[in-house]
Automatic annotation (TrEMBL):
InterPro entries (alphabetical): ANL_N_sf, Rv3268
Organism, scientific name: Geodermatophilus dictyosporus
Name of the protein in question: TIGR03089 family protein
Gene3D superfamilies: N-terminal domain of ligase-like
């Protein structure tokens, strides 16, 4: 099937077919000691719940725009893929600022970014605690709805009311605009350019991933058939032992002697 006729949800479906029980996204945060590992099946479950929440509660579908103000994180992966499963476009505000929210139908933001967003009074504001166990925003009293509490009530299987159109908008990030099919095509092209191989296990630096965007840190590995080890607030001295323990085969944005660095000549 040509890349332009597929959407990002097809990349997750392919990962499930390759091996639903195998680790797909492993997320570390050295500031909190967090380690969370999701298989393709578990990630797909979160994606389905997220897509059902967006569709059932906010009528998100083709033509909708969902602003995502989240860091590189396993829950961000679920949110992005959930939006794309609905056939909607992601307005990516994760790198510099919160962008033009007047074009967004729903806004999903990390709790520490809610205060300035509340002043703008965007529609459909939801907050994410990013708790390692997926818990809610303890002691929060603002107007944002709590993603973690609401998403759990939704179904584990997602059926869109209107099938996603590969030619529909998929990503709006600064001056960049890509269709859903264009995201898949760009992911495949970038995977080839970086040298990501099927079966690779990639150690990904948070800062590099945030600057490069979700095509680089999420979709390109999925397109290539690779898995991810995401590192937030990385302690440099711990990276070699982590790479060895996680059986990492390549790195993105990190140089560790003895490991292949994506995008650099061998």
């Amino acid at each position: 099937m040509p890349a332009s006729s597929r959407t990002p949800s097809d990349l997750l479906s392919a990962a499930l077919r390759r091996g639903g029980a195998a680790p797909l996204v492993t997320s570390y945060d050295d500031a909190t000691g967090e380690r969370v590992e999701l298989s393709a099946t578990t990630l797909a479950n979160w994606v389905a719940k997220t897509a059902n929440l967006l569709q059932d509660e906010f009528d998100v579908g083709p033509g909708s725009t969902v602003a995502v103000a989240l860091p590189v994180h396993w829950q961000t992966a679920a949110v992005l893929l959930g939006v794309w499963s609905c056939g909607a476009a992601v307005l990516d505000t994760a790198v510099e600022d919160d962008g033009r929210l007047d074009s967004a139908d729903v806004v999903l933001a990390a709790r520490d970014r809610l205060a300035p967003l509340e002043e703008q009074d965007p529609p459909g504001l939801m907050g994410l605690s990013l708790h390692p166990l997926g818990l809610g925003m303890t002691d929060y009293r603002g107007p944002a709805r709590d993603f973690a509490l609401e998403v759990r009530a939704h179904g584990d299987v997602f059926s869109p009311y209107v099938p996603a159109d590969p030619d529909a908008p998929g990503l709006l990030a600064g001056g960049l605009q890509l269709t859903l099919g264009g995201l898949v095509a760009a992911a495949g092209e970038l995977a080839g350019r970086l040298g990501i191989a099927a079966g690779d296990r990639l150690l990904v630096d948070e800062r590099t991933a945030a600057e490069a965007g979700p095509v680089a840190w999420l979709l390109a590995p999925l397109a290539a058939g690779a898995s991810l080890v995401l590192c937030r607030n990385a302690v440099v001295g711990a990276l070699r032992s982590r790479a060895e323990a996680e059986r990492v085969t390549a790195t993105l944005g990190l140089r560790i002697e003895g490991f292949r660095e994506l995008g650099r000549p061998a």
